[in-house]
Write a structure and sequence with these properties.
By secondary structure, the protein is an alpha/beta fold. It has a single domain, classed as P-loop containing nucleotide triphosphate hydrolases (Rossmann fold). Helix content is 53%, strand content 12%. The longest helix is centred in the C-terminal third of the chain and has 20 residues. Bound molecules: 2'-deoxycytidine-5'-monophosphate. The site of 2'-deoxycytidine-5'-monophosphate has 14 residues, from helix 2, helix 4 and helix 8.
Length: 217
């Protein structure tokens, strides 16, 4: 890949794998436009709940998806694990995925002129949204490690064993839903580079990612 070619990085992985942090670091390092696609699904979930609807109901979820252009994606309420669960439920509805797909592909293929390309993070970027992306990374870690990280983020050193167990169960439920849904399940693309972060800190993960990106340039 020459420097003149726009970069496109597809980054997928389960909840709390460190995807978001890695995406932000890669976006900054390579000067890429970044789309956290989980935020789109979280915003749909938020719209459903705000309207008093059911995230598993197709009509409610589709109506909520149509409101995305006017939804504030920077709302801090989107970050909670309960919104992650709502997102994972609306994300299992094919019509919702269909409605969000064009926006994601447009973002991937039309980075602003002052950017060197785009990076999208999610669950199906390398498999469905951008199957031709030249650079694909699948980041993961065992579920206990991911739960511990999420627990420390939320509670610092003040959390209880029970709160840790709750987060662990929530992440397991989300993994099960995301991996087993019929449409665009969470799955490593065959040609994605696997990074397991169970025993690595973010700096080591970032180094592994840029080594892989350099090997493709
Ligand atoms: O990455 P995240 O935790 O913010 O994602 C929230 C949920 O949204 C996730 O559990 C499943 C869904 N999602 C998806 O199905 N496809 C994507 N590309 C991104 C997120």
């Amino acid at each position: 890949m020459s420097l003149k070619t726009k970069l496109l990085i597809a980054l997928d992985g389960p909840a709390a794998s460190g995807k978001g942090t890695l995406a932000r670091k890669l976006a900054e390092h390579y000067n890429l436009a970044l789309l956290d696609t989980g935020k789109l699904y979280r915003a749909v979930g938020w719209n459903v709940l705000k309207a008093g609807g059911d995230p598993e109901n197709e009509d409610d979820a589709v109506a909520a998806t149509k409101k995305i252009p006017t939804t504030d994606l920077s709302n801090p309420e989107l970050k909670s694990e309960s919104m992650g669960a709502a997102a994972s439920k609306v994300a299992a509805i094919p019509a919702v995925r269909q409605l969000l797909a064009d926006f994601q592909r447009h973002f991937a293929n039309n980075p602003p002129a002052d950017k060197n390309g785009a990076i999208l993070d999610g669950r199906d970027i390398g498999t469905v949204i951008c199957p031709d992306a030249p650079i694909k990374i699948f980041i993961t870690a065992d579920v206990e490690t991911r739960a511990k990280r999420r627990f420390l983020e939320e509670f610092g050193n003040t959390g209880s064993e029970e709160e840790y167990r709750t987060i662990l169960e929530e992440l397991k439920a989300r993994d099960t839903r995301d991996v087993n849904r019929a449409t665009s399940p969470l799955k490593k693309a065959d040609d994605a580079h696997l990074i397991d972060t169970t025993n690595s800190d973010i700096e080591a993960v970032f180094e592994a990612a840029i080594t892989y990106v350099s090997s493709k340039e």
